[in-house]
Amino acid sequence: MLSFIFRRLGLLIPTFFGITLLTFGLIRMIPGDPVEVMVGERTLDPQMHADAMHRLGLDKPLYAQYIDYISNLLHGNLGESLVTKSSVWGEFKTLFPATLELALAAMLFAVVFGLLAGVTAAIKRGSILDHGVMGIPLTGFSMPIFWWGLILIMFFSVKLGWTPVSGRLDLAYDITPRTGFMLIDTWLAEAADPAANAGAFKDALMHLILPAIVLGTIPLAVIARMTRSSMLEVLREDYVRTARAKGLSPARVIFVHTLRNALIPVLTVIGLQVGTLMGGAVLTETIFSWPGIGKWLIDAISRRDYPVVQNGILIVATLVIVTNFIVDILYGVANPRIRHAK
Amino acid sequence: MTNANTSTVASAAEDAALSYPSPFKEFWQGFSYNKGAVAGLIFMSIVLLCAILAPLVAPYSPIEQYRDHLLTPPAWLDGGSVQFLLGTDELGRDILSRLIYGARLSLFIGLCSVLLALIPGVVLGLLAAFFPKVLGGVIMRVMDIMMALPSLLLAVAIMAILGPGLMNAMIAIATVSLPAYVRLTRASAMTELNRDYVTASRVSGAGLFRLMFNTVLPNCMAPLIVHATMSFSSAILEIAALGFLGLGVQPPTPEWGTMLASARDYIERAWWVVSLPGLTILLSVLAINLMGDGLRDALDPKLKRAA
User: Could you say which of A132, B101, B115, B292 would form a disulfide bridge with B229 (CB–CB 3.0 to 4.6 Å)?
Assistant: First the structure.
């Protein structure tokens, strides 16, 4: 097992350095040099320009700049935003819980409905129900999710008035962020002071529902499809026939004998959706003005705030590869065949 | 009379069974068995025709602003007129015309970005398969790194460097879809490389170039065609997403995603401005995906079983 982990780790480290090369190269491929970008429209005399280049270490040869960059990273120094002057890591830390909360809610939605759809379709294979249910993932794969968000807002927020249009919480509430997770924070606040914060939890929940559905749509499609094909495969196994033959109830055969074994590939797929979620968060957060990582990066791009773009992308990419690494390891734990394969 | 007919039919069937069906006929049998794929093909043919004939089909210019007709609803609603079938947007531009011209752009960018990814992807994948030790290792590591980044995020990052615009959007989308082509080509080429016909060709003195492109590549085409179709549809989605974020094609160019970028402000009073461009994207992407499924069934029975 240990050698398996080390083998995977051996792949992880070069990947990480590859990504640093990418983010390092990113800022140097921008037309014009970073100093010109920073001063923007104003003109700069050559002496000041040279001083700034020297201060930022940009007059050194490229390899020395890269070594500086890596050593800064390894010291936990991710630079500071050109606009707000606060540290990139600090901004990331305050905004990340919002994205994580949204992603977890989206995943919950996708897993619950994806499994339900996949299992239903597999049991009723070939029926109208199967075709109907499997139409969902097909549409989900083809859905422009930014449009899906707009349509949901138009229907549920504007027409029916059930859910708020944007943000995480009504401005009327003043909640001290303790965990950064709005659901937990509002719940704590309501418990502490029920009079002042009445309804805050429900309000936070209502804000979360639509973005979670939008972000969860593609993972839902993936999970439903995977569950169906994996269920169909397991249903053909001899031990399922044995279970049926010895007179177990259909529900027991499906949920205990089949679903449990069908879940292994589904779990991997769920783990690998982290990347999709981070990509989708960019769009979802933009539509719903959700103050998370995705919106932060897009805002940084439009403000030409390059340190945020550069290291924000680095953090997100690292997050994705580390999660995929963990999924890989867990998969190896669950399935010895993978562990011993070369 | 009836007897004569049946006997002709029977003998014709016998003949058909004796001779091997033409590759196209065989393909069409597999493809047309999938009803969804045929529906997708018909829909996309109409879209393609509209795109090619846009100046003839579209009732107006896509950027002409009719200032007296701001936010006119579609013809079948109260206040709508036959003059603007699908209504007008916030600047009084005809939505139908914009959608038709938008089809041109989306299909064109989609096609270009597929080609921009397919050609280098195939070359790199073949190189990785033929030289698995050093070159292959390097190529695959680089592809792994690109795969580690969420594709939309990578596209956004590339757009951040290159700046918004049509050409840059194509490059960004092609770049993010490159790794999948490389992996796919490499994997199928690796299996082919162990076959006897490749050895035979090598022994009879075929050069590297010939081995790569004449011997091995044609036998790897089926999964590549299927994947190219699927990535065509995701390219359309990605262009629209970039346009929506304001990073893709810039207004007033009628691009489906860009049309939605400003639609958010009219969500309360003009549903057609919001719904129609997105619906067009959804239907086109769905149609292409259905076609992709049909292609997969027809070209690659192995993939069908796996899915």
Answer: B292
**Mean pLDDT comparison of A80-89, A205-214, A239-248, B62-71, highest-scoring range:** A205-214
Q: CA B298 to CA A138: how far, in whole Å?
A: 19
How many helices (H) and strands (E) are present in chain A, helices listed first? Answer: 15, 0
How many CA atoms, within 13 angstroms, populate the side-chain half-sphere of residue B179? Answer: 16
Listed as own residue / partner, the contacts of B23-29 with beta carbons closer than 8 Å and 24 or more positions apart are: B27/B298, B27/B299, B28/B298, B29/B298
Give the minimum alpha-carbon distance from B268 to chain A in angstroms, rounded to a whole number: 6
State which amino acid sits at residue B79.
G
With CA atoms as reference, report the closest residue to A77 among A59, A101, A57, A49: A57
Kindly state whether A19 is in contact with chain B, defined as any CB-CB distance less than 8 angstroms: yes
Say yes or no: A10 contacts chain B, CB-CB below 8 A: no
Cα separation of A163 and B185, whole Å? Answer: 47
Cα maximum dimension of chain B: 76
pLDDT tens for A215-253 read 999 899 889 988 888 888 888 888 888 888 888 888 888
pLDDT of B118 > 90? The answer is yes
A311 → chain B, closest CA residue: B157
Which residue reads 């009719």 in tokens? Answer: B66
- Residue A180 burial class via C-beta count within 10 angstroms: exposed 0-12, middle 13-18, buried 19 and up: middle
Contacts of A321 (CB under 8 A, 6+ apart): A12, A15, A16, A19, B148
Separation of alpha carbons A74 and A57, rounded Å: 17
Out of B160, B240, B257, the one facing A301 most closely (by C-beta) is: B160
What is the number of residues in chain B? 307
Q: Considering only CB atoms, which residues of chain B are within 8 Å of chain A? A: 141-142, 144-145, 148-153, 156-157, 159-161, 163, 233, 237, 240-241, 244-247, 257, 260, 263-264, 267-268, 271, 274-275, 277-278, 281-282, 285-286, 289-290, 307
Asked whether this complex has an ipTM greater than 0.85, the answer is no
The reported pTM is 0.82
